[in-house]
Amino acid sequence: MPFVTTDDGTDIYFKDWGPRDAQPIMFHHGWPLSSDDWDAQMLYFLGKGYRVIASDRRGHGRSSQTSIGHDMDHYASDVNAVVEHLDLRNAVHIGHSTGGGQVARYVAKYGEPQGRVAKAVLVSSVPPLMVQTDTNPEGTPISVFDGFREALAANRAEFFQAVASGPFYGFNREGAQLSEPVVANWWRQGMTGSALAHYEGIKAFSETDQTEDLKAISVPVLVLQGDDDQVVPFKDAAIKQHELLPNSEIKIYEGYPHGMLTTHADVINPDILAFIQG
Question: 105, 78 in Cβ contact below 8 A?
């Protein structure tokens, strides 16, 4: 398997498909998943002639179940290790949920200063800040994230089943058609990773203020989110991202859930392609 070993000894697993001279697109997955969550996008963009890359975040998927570094700074540093190993240039970075925070930190801290990034896409992403604070009163109360931690510690398998079969894909909405294979695939990815990484990752995705990251990104950014996202409220995420980013486009999809990259790949993929080619 292809791995990159970081400075702190963590092995980061990655996939790298397609022509080496094609424009690279790197995908960054959400919590608590793995690079497998990008299957529909990687195959689509591979078919369009791009080089597609995705890695498993530390503690997730096939990467090392390390006990350290479950924070946005390490996530971004790990991305940089993969990018430098593959010498990716003129790359497009696409992040979903926590992966969107990872993209924002990587592009601001490494990608743009190194001149390696052409564009970025944030899909249902966590920046600038999820948790409710005095300066972010419309955020999600810390009690919600404490509940996530409590449920994960008590019975991770049961908690992941509930998330995937309920709010993540909107399967809890009236009239929604639940897909057992989609739920099973989400659960499989989650249970492959480390309980510690998932537990500590809740703090990383909910309490990391990425306002300055967004302000620092000057390359074109496409912001996408559904207005029925029950995991990351779009008014506290996509709307604010668009306001903070110096050079962005935004599209809000009526009725789409947090996991719209899976449930509505037939719509989202062409929209991302048009942005990349534009």
Answer: no
Region 111-132: mean pLDDT is: 98
143 is catalytic: no
Which among 71, 78, 229, 236 is annotated as catalytic? 229
- How far is it, in rounded angstroms, from Cα 242 to Cα 270? 20
Q: What pLDDT, on the 0 to 100 scale, is given for residue 150?
A: 98
pLDDT exceeds 80 at position 27: yes
The reply to whether 28 belongs to the active site is no
Strand stretches in the chain, DSSP E: 3-5, 11-17, 24-28, 51-55, 91-96, 117-123, 221-226, 248-253
Q: pTM higher than 0.70, yes or no?
A: yes
3-class state of residue 202 by DSSP: helix
Per DSSP, helices labelled H in 87-222 are 98-106, 112-114, 142-165, 180-192, 195-207, 211-216
120 φ, ψ (degrees, to nearest 5) = -145, 155
For the domain covering 3-277, report its CATH number: 3.40.50.1820
Catalytic residue selected from 35, 64, 97, 194? 97
203, with CB counted inside 10 A (0-12, 13-18, 19+), is: middle
The residue ranges of every structural domain in the chain are: 3-277
Question: In Å, how far from its chain's centre is CA 269?
Answer: 15
- Catalytic, 74? Answer no
Contact 253, 227 (CB under 8 A): yes
Look at residue 109 and tell me whether its pLDDT is greater than 70: yes
